[in-house]
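Note on ligand handling. Small-molecule inputs were canonicalized before submission; formal charges were left as drawn, and no protonation-state enumeration was performed. Where a ligand contained multiple stereocentres, the stereochemistry in the source SMILES was retained. For pyridoxal-5'-phosphate, this procedure yielded the string shown in the input block below.
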Amino acid sequence: MSKEVSEYDTNRSEEMINFGIGRPSSNLLPLDLLQQASEAFFRSAEPQDISYGRREGDERFTESLAAFLEENYGQRIQPDSLFLSGGISQALDFICTQLSRPGDNIIVEEPCYFLAYQIFKDHGLNIISVPMDQDGMDVDALEAILSRVKPTLVYTIPSYQNPTGRSMSAERRKRLIALSQAHGFLIVADEVYQLLSYHGTPPPAFGTMLDSDTVLSVGSFSKILAPGLRLGWIQTSNKLVRQLSKAGLVNSGGSINQFTSMIVNQALVSGLAQQHLVKLYTVYRERVATMDAALREHLSDHVSWVKPDGGYFFWLKLIKDVDMTALLERASALGVGFHSGALFSNSGGMQNHIRLSFVYYEQESISTGIKRLKSAFDF
Ligand SMILES: Cc1ncc(COP(=O)(O)O)c(C=O)c1O
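Structure output:
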């Protein structure tokens, strides 16, 4: 049994500071914003707005989403490159259903977002890991794998990766696309953290690199508005949008999340969603700085790390060997939780790493939690 404190564990005391939690804190979930957007929707709604929606997503929504992405990516985004999803988890599941067959190979980064493994396994995919370095996926290592393995999909989290916080360089993005064309695989770029940049700008989103017909960029409102909306998008070539819109799921049910998309449309056109994003930058920038400073003050003898420029996570490397099970137990007894690196490996690796999320707690709790973690190490 894992000793890690689950983020859904409601029996823990309020005092527990669980850096495993990778979702927005309650005070950053914008109820007011959604109330305003809902009121605006109901003021002008037509009955048809709550009927089955267009399979790719209501045109008003894909247009306002394209404008929002255009503002943030700084590049022209075509509304017809967008296909509405029920968030990235649903999009990944849907892409696997539509574009792969059980037994196909999927290549993923090592380490990788641990819950994606389960989605790929649900589809009977054979998961093969490719190493990463500070510039993201090691594309040379990928090329070596491609000489002996034919993948259907290559899954990457190119910007502010979960769990490492690293971003794939622009040059590697281009090489990955060239490899996808040469070897006939599809790139599934999970761009969930692309818009959460606190210092500088990340390399261009895969959503702006669609010409090859081999790229699917998946995005979500989970981290920039609220996870409970279950709303996101797949951005891809017209050819693949057409293919996805023939799926039985949308043929039968229409738009995957019509009603919510009509509310979020109002948040987009009114500028409220953009204002919220700017607020998140300010708050998260402070939280990154606080965690970095607390780590430097208390844990630099035990771990090394690179301060992330965006996203949600610090990826710590243990300087000396530590019994991770014992560390997790001591940490839990002292009131602090985290995810061990092994969770993010498909091959029993990453034992000497720890992932901390900096987004869920306010600055004071972040400092307190890191002090507790120091005590767990010093025990
Ligand atoms: C890399 C990555 N992809 C997808 C998700 C889940 O996205 P969604 O809520 O849109 O399903 C997460 C959430 O933590 C994530 O970190």
